[in-house]
Structures are given as structure tokens and as C-alpha cells.
Design a protein that fits this description.
The chain is mainly beta. It contains two helices and 29 strands. It folds into three domains: 83 residues, Immunoglobulin-like (Sandwich), CATH 2.60.40; 91 residues, Immunoglobulins (Immunoglobulin-like), CATH 2.60.40; 107 residues, Immunoglobulin-like (Sandwich), CATH 2.60.40. Helices cover 8% and strands 45% of the residues. The chain is elongated. The termini are far apart.
């Protein structure tokens, strides 16, 4: 039996060839994308304005404006290559610090890591009045221009001869762009027998002054916080009065209270300030006790000053200085 073959028309062959070519073309058109770029990276500054980062190689450069508080974290809006994914995701909060990283994965599975590079645009600090001494219990004052007001970016340290660092806490009320005023602590972290260099760090700058040997002054320890136990009352002549307090390390180890109490009293007859010395009766770790004599002036107490001695020199020292505001509420009476 013979087999008959029917020839295929040329037109049909052409259609089949074109179809196969088209199928091949479609396969190439829908290959997975290999791109893993960060195309845009946008955040808001402290005043709500948009900041566009510069993406260079694997670095995301964010230029933060001068004189604005630098945030701990940011939530950027990020644009990436088509069909790629990014981790952490766009809008997710991340730490605003160098080294924070993003990983972009292309549709085809290729990946690239990008690193955040914060850069704060700030002029160099200009110091016009540098520290020249350390007074325990008193404010250290530094004057200049362009100090950072961000307490995460400005620091004041005292560094002793053994390279031990004593941080001096800076609060917003202690500084501005043109001054720093901060008390030297009396908790024993700064001692008069040592020498310290003063280190000021503002942004990326670090300045060193000194070294200086701390000095204790007679009135330098008034930050202790004394409280007249009889405040707001009428105190009779011959009575006992007392001041409660919490002594500091410096207060306990470098001073005593061997002195009288001077009260300034607004005399009810003459309306003049009269000084009166009250006798010291006793001293404890938390209380000073004095006697108001029978000869005390009658009137309202406006000021109380307690005296003691600096142990190393024996010199007179002010241990307490309380100035009361009018209208005066504490009085000496018959």
C-alpha cells in the first residue's frame, strides 16, 4: 500500500515560522529585570522641608541643614528600580547614623547593599572666650559662635591627668549657639587635688583647653539646696530653727559648719535691713540647728547666710545663702 503525502503550502510554512519567531521574541521581552538601584531617597528636615539624598555608588549621602537638631531616626520615602524590593521598606523608621544599611534585590535575584552617610552642614565653631579655670560648684562659661544646640552633638568633658573622662552634663537651658554656661559638679567627680583639661566637642569638632587645677570658693557650693524647716511661720525669740539639706561629697570632705548663721531681718520699726547672728547649736549629716536669741530684731527674714570653714585652709566659707522673695512670709516675733 502506497502512502500519499500532501504537500504543505508555502503560505502555511511562512505563518508557522513567523509564529515561532514571535514566541521567541515574547520570551525575551518578559525576562526578569536585573536592576537594583535606589533611584530616589527623600526625608523631611526639622522644619518640615524635603531633603533629597545623593546616591553615589553604594552610599546614600544626606546633607542635614545647619543649626537644626539632628534626629535619632528617619523614615525616608525611597524609589527603587522596577520590580525590585528593598529592606528595610520605604517609609520604615531607621537609625539616622552612618552604617545604617539598605538591601535592594532585583527581580532577577541580584542584590546590592547601600549605606547611609549623614553629613551635617555646620560652620566651624568660633570660640571668643575660652575656659581659663575650673571652679567647683560654679558655672563654667564659654563664649563663641556656631555651637551646636543639639545635646546629642555637643559635649563638655573634663579629662584628668590619668586620661579619665568626666562628662559634664549639658541641658538645653545650659547652652545656645553663642554661649555655654554649666555648673561644675560637687558630687566628687571633680576633685581639687587633680588637674583637668577641658574638652569641648561640637558636631565633628573637638577643642582642648588647659589643664587647670579646680578651685573651691567660699560660696561655690550653694547648689546643695537648703530648706528652712520653719519657713512661712512666726518664729518666737528664744526658739530653735533648723535647715535641712543633703550634703554633697565636696561639702562633706572639704568643709565644716563651724560658724554662725547670719539672718537679715526687715525691722518692723525702722523698715531697714538689720543683720543678726544666730548661734550654731548642732550639725548632723542632714540638718543644721541654730538658736534665735531673746535680743533678735522683730521683723521679717529676707536672707539667711550660714558660715563654715574650708578644711584645707581654715578660711571662712559661705555654706548656705538663701535670699527670699517678697512678700516675706517668715518672721521673728516676741
Amino acid at each position: 500500500m502506497k502512502t500519499r503525502y500532501t504537500p504543505i503550502p508555502n503560505t502555511l510554512i511562512r505563518i508557522l515560522v513567523i509564529g515561532l519567531i514571535s514566541l521567541g521574541s515574547c520570551k525575551k521581552e518578559y525576562e526578569d529585570y536585573p536592576y537594583h538601584d535606589i533611584e530616589s531617597f527623600t526625608i523631611s528636615d526639622a522644619e518640615g522641608y524635603s531633603l533629597e539624598a545623593a546616591v553615589v555608588g553604594d552610599s546614600i549621602w544626606v546633607y542635614w541643614p545647619p543649626f537644626q537638631t539632628v534626629p535619632d531616626s528617619i523614615s525616608p520615602v525611597i524609589g527603587i528600580s522596577r520590580n525590585a524590593t528593598i529592606s528595610p521598606a520605604s517609609g520604615e523608621k531607621i537609625a539616622f547614623r552612618e552604617g545604617s544599611a539598605y538591601t535592594v534585590v532585583s527581580e532577577s535575584g541580584l542584590s546590592k547593599i547601600y549605606y547611609l552617610k549623614p553629613a551635617v552642614n555646620e560652620p566651624p565653631v568660633l570660640v571668643t572666650a575660652a575656659p581659663n579655670s575650673i571652679l567647683i560648684g560654679y558655672d563654667m562659661s564659654i563664649r563663641g559662635q556656631y555651637f551646636s544646640t543639639d545635646t546629642n552633638r555637643i559635649h563638655l568633658n573634663l579629662i584628668d591627668e590619668d586620661k579619665n573622662v568626666v562628662p559634664i552634663k549639658l541641658a538645653p537651658e545650659n547652652l545656645s549657639s553663642v554661649y555655654i554656661n554649666v555648673p561644675i559638679p560637687i558630687d566628687g567627680s571633680v576633685l581639687p587635688e587633680k588637674s583637668y583639661s577641658v574638652q569641648l566637642i561640637s558636631g565633628t569638632q573637638s577643642l582642648i583647653y588647659g589643664p587647670f587645677q579646680p578651685v573651691m570658693t567660699g560660696s561655690g557650693l550653694s547648689h546643695i539646696g537648703y530648706q528652712l524647716d520653719q519657713a512661712g511661720t512666726n518664729i518666737k525669740r528664744g526658739s530653735i530653727i533648723s535647715f535641712s539639706y543633703e550634703p554633697s561629697y565636696i561639702d562633706v570632705h572639704y568643709f565644716n559648719y563651724e560658724g554662725d548663721l547670719t539672718l537679715y531681718i526687715l525691722d518692723e520699726q525702722t523698715n531697714a535691713q538689720v543683720a543678726y547672728n544666730a548661734e550654731l547649736l548642732s550639725v548632723t549629716d542632714t540638718k543644721l540647728t541654730y538658736r534665735i536669741g531673746s535680743d533678735a530684731p522683730i521683723g521679717k527674714i529676707t536672707t539667711a547666710i550660714a558660715y563654715g570653714q574650708q578644711l584645707s585652709t581654715g578660711t571662712l566659707a559661705v555654706r548656705l545663702a538663701e535670699v527670699y522673695a517678697a512678700p516675706y512670709t517668715t518672721s521673728i516675733v516676741e
